[in-house]
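During the second year of the project, the team shifted from modelling isolated chains to modelling whole assemblies. The rationale, set out in the original proposal, was that interfaces cannot be judged from single-chain predictions alone. As a representative example for this report, we include one of the complexes processed in the last quarter. Its constituent sequences, exactly as entered into the pipeline, are reproduced here:
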Amino acid sequence: MSVAPQSGPAPAQAPAEVLMEMRDITLRFGGVVAIRGISFDIRAGEIRAIIGPNGAGKSSMLNVINGFYHPQEGEVWFRGQRRKPMKPHQIAHQGIARTFQNIALFKGMSTLDNIMTGRFTRMRAPWWQQAVWAGPAEREEVANRAFVEHIIDFLEIQAIRKTPVGRLPYGLQKRVELGRALAAEPKLLLLDEPMAGMNVEEKEDMSRFILDVNDEFGTTIALIEHDMGVVMDISDRVVVMDYGAKIGDGTPDEVRSNPQVIDAYLGVAHD
Amino acid sequence: MFYREAGDFKTSYRDDGQTFPIAFDRWRYYFVLLVGFVGIPLVLTEYTANAVMIPFLIWAIVAIGLNILTGYCGQVSLGTGGFMAVGAYAAYKIMTAAPELNILFVVLLSGGVTAAVGMLFGLPSLRIKGFYLAVATLAAQFFLVWLFNRVPWFYNNSASGQITAPERSILGMAVTGPQAGAVPKYLFCLVILFALAWLARNLTRGRLGRSWMAIRDMDIAAEIIGVNPLRAKLSAFAISSFFVGVGGALFFTVYLGAVEVGEAFGINKSFLALFMIIIGGLGSIFGSFAGAAFMVLMPVLLKNLMVDTLSWPTAIAAHFEFMIVGALIVFFLVVEPHGLAALWRTAKEKLRLWPFPH
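Output from the structure prediction step:
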């Protein structure tokens, strides 16, 4: 594990290593500046929330992290190394998985197949072995199926494993999407609004799963969420964005009492 | 009553992942194999072989090939006829250049050549999608047919511009050329179809097949979990074209014997293959069989009914044939837009619960 030691101010409770660091990221679309000069880090093992009003650039930031957008300025450091510009599928092989704001499941496939597809980066058998379905290819398939079954158990979706995901209700689809991301055994898991459009009960379930993933698998999580109650409860540290700029960074308590953050959310004018 | 999972317990993931998880389905599958390999050859006549069985087997191979590309990987292709022509002309060139080579290897090599050509014409799919890709593959169709018409090297400078399959045999039985008998031809096509269908089933349920379906259903999400779109799409083009090329080679060597490219592999063949997989069911191996059977058998059945049974004039029967087949296509698509395979699946689900409604 080649993880660089943390150089910034060490927090009191968690002196963990930095897994990912964004340095002065600026992202422009023509004349529109989506992200302006943002720096922040994500420490190994923490739950890091990114919050902000609509259009603040949160999803753009996730897209920078997993390679859909390439920032014009700034550097992305992952596991102690500066990352070269990469395609999203290469970044997936480095161990970054994500879920989407609007569910992006493979609609024509069953729950099981969706999560099995999440194992893509973990499977090695060449295509001609898959074609005859014998030897290593079959053993690999069975071994990965066993792993996927663990995730299915963990997320409590045993009953729907062979159901096409298009037929599932919204809350379960979100859960399957989380399962697909977990199947890759990511080092960093990005969740884009995992609780959007859920009722209170579903939100509680999802919060529990996120905390359990963090606890049991030790997965580092970066999430975007609008429900302040949830964010303040489950995250270790919070980045606040507004109009593409960072206006706050710290523990939930620090962020809550930051006057700039209060302004951005409540729109109060200081005279 | 015996169509149930109940009592048929699976104790390993290997058993649970098999193609026919229900015992009755497995027995039916073995029964169909028995009929195909033993039953039909015993009663096969020259007419049923040439008019029904051999075209059905060859079109099933082509339909599986196109289904891999369009049904599983979501890349619409209208170049099927052109790729079949590549398989046919590759077979002709190989047969004339290497007369000693066994016909089985000729057919497989022709598939390999077609796979390479298919990959080349698949390159635009990395930039263009949907209807635009369909138009790009249409260009492949016209270009390939033009190429085989205009470059005499492909038909060995023959005066007629046609290519003719010389006689080749397997185990002492001729399968191509005018002397070939119905049964050897039928069995030759059946063995190839059986092997290719089995390979296609394995590929589509494994890692590669899942990467195709991921690209089809949501290409952004596929990329985020590590699927390289370039590799997924080009592998689908290559394997699909291999199947179509083998189909084209058999179409020329075993079925037609002599071929004029514009007539045998024109744009209507591309549409025919596309109709087969849409009617049969996109993304289903069984659907490819069902679609090929529908499009090959239906005209023959209608013709037999109208001309032989009702003794209508042949010309009128031919017009009615077109109208009825067209109407049936519309009817099936209205009843079940996902094709005969979906109809079959619904029937099986109902049967599993029978006699209870839920």
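The CA atoms of residues 70 and 281 of chain B lie 11 Å apart. The first strand of chain B starts at residue 163 and ends at 164.
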